[in-house]
Design a protein that fits this description.
- The chain is of the alpha/beta class.
- It folds into two domains: 4-26 and 107-242, Rossmann fold (3-Layer(aba) Sandwich), CATH 3.40.50.1000; 28-103.
- It contains twelve helices and six strands.
- The chain has a six-stranded parallel beta sheet, sandwiched between helices.
- Helix 10 (196-205) runs parallel beside helix 11 (221-227).
- It starts with 13 loop residues before the first strand and ends with a helix.
- The model has no long low-confidence stretch (mean pLDDT 94).
Length: 243
């Protein structure tokens, strides 16, 4: 891993951001969503850290084309839910989560300032997320706290969501899509990611990656530090070092 002060932005043209855990504080929201889901449909009260670790293990190891449906089926079987239909449970989980996304999710400190500075400097900005289009629309249509700071839809030149990608991270497909779209090579790109799978996807694409600290990724901290190109604790640190 290199020091962030060694990062040379002069040769970069495209800067790519993950969403959940990278630009917004949302990982904890899904922990609480799954806590409510498990309690409501099995009667079990589970530790939030256990829920996250268990979900992370499942998501990293499962290659299903519809990972959210597969995860719902996993929860039904693991906790013997009273709801047995995986599609019904997927819809219930989405509704619980969406209500929280409307009211509680916000940008990480420094995000809007960084995006504004990068746009002023002429960089092409891309959002690459496994978030669904419907969830993304909640952020830029219904989440007043986020809309008042920055409208995601207007902030990025290109947005790639779950529906446009066949293979989830750590597969580098999403980054190949972006490079093909702009006819760019890996050296012209820079990626911001918070998670181990995200950093691994960037590495698999051959693109330099900055790991932005997120406490929910601490379980993989050693693995992240071993493969990331750069790391920062905050966007303020990045701006002070590189801009």
């Amino acid at each position: 891993m290199k020091n962030i002060n060694e990062l040379n932005l002069k040769d970069k043209k495209i800067i790519i951001f993950d969403l959940d855990g990278t630009l917004i504080d949302s990982i904890g929201i899904w922990n609480m969503t799954d806590y409510k889901l498990i309690y409501n449909y099995s009667g079990k009260e589970m530790d939030l850290d256990f829920i996250q670790a268990d979900r992370d293990r499942f998501l990293q190891s499962n290659a299903s084309s519809d990972i959210y449906v597969a995860y719902s089926e996993y929860l039904i079987n693991k906790y013997d839910f009273s709801v047995k239909d995986k599609l019904e449970l997927t819809e219930i989980r989405k509704n619980i989560g969406n209500e929280v996304l409307r009211s509680e999710v916000g940008f990480k400190p420094g995000v809007t300032t960084l995006i504004k500075k990068l746009k002023e400097m002429g960089y092409t900005l891309v959002l690459a997320t496994v978030t669904t289009q419907s969830q993304l629309e909640i952020y830029y249509k219904e989440n007043k706290k986020m809309i008042d700071e920055m409208n995601i839809k207007d902030a990025f030149d290109l947005i790639i969501t779950k529906e446009q990608v066949n293979n989830k991270k750590p597969d580098p497909e999403v980054y190949h899509i972006i490079m093909d779209y702009y006819k760019a090579n890996p050296d012209e790109c820079l990626i911001f990611e918070d998670s181990y799978t995200g950093v691994m996807a960037a590495r698999n694409a051959g693109i330099e990656v900055v790991n932005i600290y997120d406490k929910y990724a601490d379980i993989d901290r050693e693995k992240i530090d071993a493969i990331t190109d750069y790391k920062v604790d905050s966007y303020e640190e990045f701006m002070n070092s590189c801009l």
